[in-house]
Amino acid sequence: MAICPNCKNVIADTAEFCPTCQTPMSATPAQPAQPAANMPYQGQHFQNHPQPPYQQPYGYQQPYQQPYGYHQPYPMPLKNSGMAVASMVCGIVGLFLFGIILGTLAVIFGFVGLNQVKMRPAKGKGMAIAGIVLGFVGVGLMILLLANGTIYFNYNIG
Predict the structure, then answer these.
(1) Sign (positive/negative) of CA torsion 143, 146, 149, 151?
(2) Would the pLDDT of 48 be above 90?
(3) Alpha-carbon torsion, ordered 14, 17, 18, 19, to 10 deg
(4) Separation CA 33–CA 23 (nearest Å)
(5) Mean pLDDT of 70-96
(6) Residue 17 forms beta bridges with which residues?
(7) How far apart are CA 140 and CA 75, in angstroms?
(8) CA-to-CA distance for 70 and 130, rounded, in angstroms?
C-alpha cells in the first residue's frame, strides 16, 4: 500500500495514478499542492467515511409533489344566484325609490334565491337574506311614510 503525496489517500502499490486526485505515482514525490478546502489539516487523519445524507429539521415536512405530467384540475367556481342578486338590488333601490313595489319584489326574489341556493350549488345566501331584510324595511318605511302623510294631511286639512 502506498500513500498519495498530494491527497494522502491510501492506494494500491501497482497504481500509476491516484484515483482521487489523478496525481502520478512516481518514485520522486511531487511538489506539495495547495491544500484544498476539503483536505484535512496537518496532524489530522483523513477518514474515508461518506457524509450522512442531509436530513430535514424536526417538524419540517417535504411538500408532496405530483408525478411529472399530472396536474390536479381546478374546481369550477360557484356562480351567484341571479335571484339573490336581483333581490339585493331591488332591496337597495327600494329604500330610496318606489319602496312598496321594489320592496315587495326584493322579498319575493330573496325567498326564490334562498331556495335556489339550497337546491343547487350556488353562492348568494347572504345577498338573498340582505334583499329580504331590505325589502321588508323598504315596505315598512313606505307604509309608515304614507300613514304619517295621511294622518298629517287629514289632521291639517280636515
Answers:
(1) negative
(2) no
(3) -100
(4) 10
(5) 86
(6) 24
(7) 42
(8) 43
